[in-house]
Amino acid sequence: MARIIVIDDDADIVRLVAIRLARAGHDVDEYYDGTSGLGAIQSSKPDLAVVDWMMPGLDGIGVAQAVRADAALAAMPLLLLTARSDPAEHDYACAQGFSAVVTKPFTKAELLSAVSALLPEDQAAPEAG
């Protein structure tokens, strides 16, 4: 089981992702803006963060850049959720610090597969429901 932070300004997406990850056996914390989500990442140092790109204020790219600039967090995997489907934009996001990208809308299988791929084997819990 991994500790995962989900950051998205869309409460429905946050709840959907949190429920799917919790049912897969993960401990999930929810945040609805980049600033509070980044603060939570910095204070709790989770195993993974799932972050939306387009948010008011501090967007996902800003969160990724801040995480990568922090030596204590630099190796933490970051999964980007985005409605942007252009491969060039995905490449840009990865160049800014994201470990992987999942395009919205996504299936439960796509989300869980991406999360499992980013976590060490002993934390990539099998799907529980």
Task: Tell me what you see in this structure.
- This protein is an alpha/beta fold and 129 residues long.
- The protein has one domain (3-118): Rossmann fold.
- The chain is 42% helix and 19% strand.
- The protein has five helices and five strands, in the order E-H-E-H-E-H-E-H-E-H.
- It has a five-stranded parallel β-sheet with strand order 2-1-3-4-5, with helices on both faces.
- Helix 2 runs parallel beside helix 3 (60-69).
- The longest helix is centred in the first third of the chain and has 13 residues, at 11-23.
- It is globular and about 30 Å long.
- It starts with a strand and ends in an 11-residue tail after the last helix.
- The model has no long low-confidence stretch (mean pLDDT 95).
Characteristic key phrases:
129 residues; alpha/beta; Rossmann fold; five-stranded parallel β-sheet
Short précis:
By secondary structure, the chain is an alpha/beta fold. Helix content is 42%, strand content 19%.
Chart the SSEs and their pairings:
Layout: E1 3-7, H1 11-23, E2 27-31, H2 34-44, E3 48-52, H3 60-69, E4 78-82, H4 87-95, E5 100-103, H5 108-118
Parallel strand pairs: 1-2, 1-3, 3-4, 4-5
Please name the CATH topology: Rossmann fold
Strand content: 15-25%
The average pLDDT is 95
Instruction: Work out the helicity level.
Output: 40-55%
- Biggest sheet descriptor: 5 strands, parallel
- Terminal residue distance: 14 Å
What is the CA-atom radius of gyration, in angstroms? 13 Å
Number of distinct beta strands: 5
Question: What would you call the structural class?
Answer: alpha/beta
